[in-house]
Write a structure and sequence with these properties.
Largest sheet: 8 strands, antiparallel
Distance between the termini: 30 Å
Strand content: 25-35%
Helix content: 10-25%
Oligomer: single chain
Structural class: alpha+beta
Length: 219
């Protein structure tokens, strides 16, 4: 059974994961990626992702929901041997922490119904305000997180449409500082949010490939 998580409702740790079991691998992590076309949701969009990356569509039979992209293969079965199972669980926790911090590169796309005023031509003032409010909700970055300062909001081209670029910074309940960058656009009644979340020490090294992915998107 898969659980669908959303930027609008899930804590940070849940954003990238459905109810799978994951395993740590020795795959190298580098900012110097080669890229390949991703056509898994070609009826809605196309883009280019780093070659060798993996994808989990948490709503494979719907035009809405979260699609997660990550740099390491993770699905596996937990061993029945309790010692090995514990080692695997520890590896999973390490992997989860790496993806949440940004040490292990990953991003996701959240798709949901567009509200009034959200079109490919842009977001009107009311829609923009509502959109930013979604991104600064505590649930988006974890329960009890505290937003730092004001979000940075700018108009930006996304997927051939006029969209938004929103940067939010927060202190999480766990004591970490994180940055969330979201590119958002709407077309044909659906809003697409492309999000990168990372601690400042990893954010800058993840930003170039994320901007490259966003620039390749076509809605």
């Amino acid at each position: 059974m898969n659980r669908v998580f959303s930027l609008r409702t899930a804590p940070l740790g849940a954003l990238l994961f459905s109810m799978f079991t994951f395993a740590q691998t020795d795959a190298p992590v580098s900012a110097d990626f080669a890229y390949k076309p991703y056509h898994g949701n070609r009826d809605q969009f196309t883009l280019e992702i780093p070659d060798g990356w993996h994808v989990v569509d948490q709503s494979p039979y719907s035009d809405k929901g979260v699609i997660a992209f990550y740099s390491q293969p993770m699905q596996m079965k937990i061993d029945k041997d309790p010692v090995l199972a514990r080692q695997q669980e520890q590896a999973f926790q390490k992997l989860l922490e790496g993806m949440e911090s940004g040490e292990i590169p990953s991003f996701f796309i959240d798709r949901y119904k567009a509200d009034k005023g959200m079109t490919c031509a842009g977001f009107d003032a009311r829609a923009q305000k509502k959109k930013v409010k979604i991104f600064v909700k505590a649930d988006a970055l974890g329960s009890k997180s505290k937003i730092i300062g004001e979000p940075e909001v700018a108009n930006a081209p996304v997927g051939g449409c006029q969209g938004l670029r929103v940067m939010v910074r927060a202190n999480t309940a766990a004591g970490a500082t994180v940055q969330m960058l979201v590119y958002s656009a709407a077309v044909d009644g659906i809003t697409y949010d492309l999000a990168l979340i990372a601690e400042p020490r990893y954010f800058d090294q993840n930003l170039p490939w994320f901007e490259r992915v966003v620039s390749s998107m076509r809605l």
